[in-house]
Write a structure and sequence with these properties.
This protein is mainly alpha-helical. The chain folds into two domains: 67 residues, no CATH class; 38 residues, no CATH class. The chain contains five helices and no strands. Helix 1 crosses helix 2. The model has no long low-confidence stretch (mean pLDDT 89).
Length: 106
């Protein structure tokens, strides 16, 4: 894989984390140290985290992913961390929810 593609993928992943943390902050889902880390990441970016802070965020994301699984595809269609938030509210990922709605219309 070329350097440009790797840099683009890393940028996408970092943006995905920032977007997820920003939405979780908006929903007041964090308490304690995680809240401060999330605010830091939203303000200064993913690369501003120390290794310990990164481990805290990774642990939270992994636990959130485990708690929020699409009832239909078991997260096979999940393409972003914010899809997990959608699942927490709807039981399905956005793609499966869209497929369900389309099926119901037809």
């Amino acid at each position: 894989m070329g350097q440009a593609k790797r840099a683009w993928e890393e940028s996408e992943a970092n943006g995905n984390i920032v977007e997820f943390l920003e939405e979780m902050l908006r929903r007041d889902e964090f308490k304690g140290a995680l809240e401060g880390i999330a605010k830091q990441v939203v303000d200064k970016g993913v690369n501003s985290m120390s290794p310990k802070q990164s481990a805290v965020v990774d642990k939270f994301i992994e636990a959130y992913r485990e708690r929020n699984e699409c009832d239909r595809c078991t997260n096979g269609n999940v393409t972003s961390l914010t899809d997990l938030i959608f699942i927490s509210e709807n039981g399905l990922c956005p793609m499966c929810d869209n497929d369900r709605e389309k099926f119901m219309r037809d």
